[in-house]
């Protein structure tokens, strides 16, 4: 039995030896593993109170900064408003001062015409109507301030060469606020053609014709200023950049000076209904339309009388437009003057004014 137990013990030692050796080897080879358990650190109450106080102070500072910023913005806004108001006042004052000479001049020229009996004004135009009655004739003056150069246009009768219509028809057809007859005409083949050089929308209707005898051209340029006179060649007129214009006889004033009136037009006829147009030095227009009961020479005004009238009113350049039964003045849809024919005459060209 003892021998067998020894054998068995030796057998177990031999059997478990390798495992036991391996275990011992592993124990010696691996380092000891430390497991650290971190526990929550303890913060004293005094520390928490100090941190809270610092946080409160920081918030107070932030609030003060915000309030200071808001206050600064308000001051800046108030200063901006004050500055803007001051600048607007300066601009308004400067504008008023700049307009003062024009206002004074307008009052001076208007005073010579009297008190207007009708006024039309918009952002584009100002029209004032006056009675003209020096004792020897009666008529109407229409002073026009073009705020927009396109507020005055010229039209052909029924929009075609050879066509004719009354100024009232042209005014109504185009929706204009006012209108007058323009240049002279010649009848041929049952049609009524504009006389000599005529410009519409910057183009020559029937080409350029050099001025001859007592004829002249009058119209507006592309800047809305009255232009006119006699032109021996097209280049002379082109330099003035005409936008529209018509032709008749004669010139009454040029550069503020009376022009010689040809003897023919002093007596043929002596008196007649008339339409004349001129400009002041500030580019306002003055149109005078004189009444007459016929074209025989016994009623209306002479050209010398109208020349003298325009000169006395301070007109710079003045031109006689077609007269007699052609004279017409339309304002706000009604005929202001008294046509000598008893009714308005159809003519081929009209000057129209728009609100």
Short description:
This protein is of the alpha+beta class. It has helices spanning 2-29, 45-113, 167-174, 234-238, 263-267, 303-312, and strands at residues 118-121, 125-132, 139-146, 152-156, 178-181, 185-188, 191-194, 199-200, 203-204, 216-221, 226-229, 242-248, 251-254, 257-258, 274-279, 285-290, 317-321, 329-331, 334-335, 349-353. It is 35% helix and 26% strand.
List the helices and strands and how they pair.
Elements: H1 2-29, H2 45-113, E1 118-121, E2 125-132, E3 139-146, E4 152-156, H3 167-174, E5 178-181, E6 185-188, E7 191-194, E8 199-200, E9 203-204, E10 216-221, E11 226-229, H4 234-238, E12 242-248, E13 251-254, E14 257-258, H5 263-267, E15 274-279, E16 285-290, H6 303-312, E17 317-321, E18 329-331, E19 334-335, E20 349-353
Structure characterization notes:
With 355 residues, this protein is an alpha+beta fold. It has a domain at 116-338 and 348-353. It contains six helices and 20 strands. The chain has helices at 2-29, 45-113, 167-174, 234-238, 263-267, 303-312, and strands at 118-121, 125-132, 139-146, 152-156, 178-181, 185-188, 191-194, 199-200, 203-204, 216-221, 226-229, 242-248, 251-254, 257-258, 274-279, 285-290, 317-321, 329-331, 334-335, 349-353. The strands form five sheets. The protein has an eight-stranded antiparallel β-sheet, covered by helices on one side. The chain has a five-stranded antiparallel β-sheet with strand order 4-20-5-18-19, with helices on one face. Strands 11-10-12 form a three-stranded antiparallel β-sheet, with no helix packed on it. It is elongated and about 125 Å long. The model is unreliable at 1-9 and 30-40 (pLDDT under 50).
């Amino acid at each position: 039995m003892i021998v067998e137990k020894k054998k068995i013990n030796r057998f177990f030692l031999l059997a478990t030896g390798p495992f036991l050796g391996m275990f011992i080897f592993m124990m010696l080879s691996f380092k000891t593993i430390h497991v650290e358990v971190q526990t929550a650190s303890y913060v004293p109450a005094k520390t928490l109170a100090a941190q809270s106080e610092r946080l409160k102070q920081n918030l107070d500072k932030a609030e003060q900064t915000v309030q200071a910023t808001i206050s600064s913005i308000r001051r800046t806004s108030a200063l901006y408003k004050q500055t803007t108001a001051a600048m607007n006042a300066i601009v308004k004052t400067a504008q008023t001062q700049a307009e003062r000479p024009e206002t004074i001049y307008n009052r001076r020229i208007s005073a010579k015409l009297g008190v207007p009996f009708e006024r039309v004004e918009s952002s584009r135009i100002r029209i004032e109507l006056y009675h003209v009655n020096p004792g020897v004739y009666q008529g109407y003056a229409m002073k026009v301030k073009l705020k927009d150069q396109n507020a005055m246009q010229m039209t052909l009768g029924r929009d075609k060469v050879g066509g004719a219509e009354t100024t009232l028809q042209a005014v109504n057809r185009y929706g204009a606020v006012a209108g007058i007859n323009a240049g002279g005409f010649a009848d041929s083949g049952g049609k009524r053609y504009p006389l000599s050089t005529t410009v519409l929308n910057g183009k020559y209707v029937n080409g350029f014709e050099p001025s001859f005898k007592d004829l002249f051209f009058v119209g507006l340029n592309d800047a809305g200023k009255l232009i006119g006179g006699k032109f021996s060649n097209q280049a002379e007129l082109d330099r003035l950049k005409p936008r529209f214009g018509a032709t008749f006889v004669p010139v009454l004033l040029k550069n503020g000076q009376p022009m010689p009136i040809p003897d023919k037009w002093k007596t043929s006829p002596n008196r007649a209904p008339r339409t004349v147009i001129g400009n002041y030095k500030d580019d306002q227009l003055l149109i005078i339309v004189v009444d007459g009961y016929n074209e025989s020479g016994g009623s209306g005004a002479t050209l010398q009388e109208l020349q003298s009238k325009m000169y006395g009113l301070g007109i710079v350049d003045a031109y006689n437009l077609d007269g007699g039964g052609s004279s017409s003045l339309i304002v706000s849809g009604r005929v202001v003057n008294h046509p000598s024919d008893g009714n308005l005459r159809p003519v081929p060209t009209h000057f129209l004014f728009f609100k």
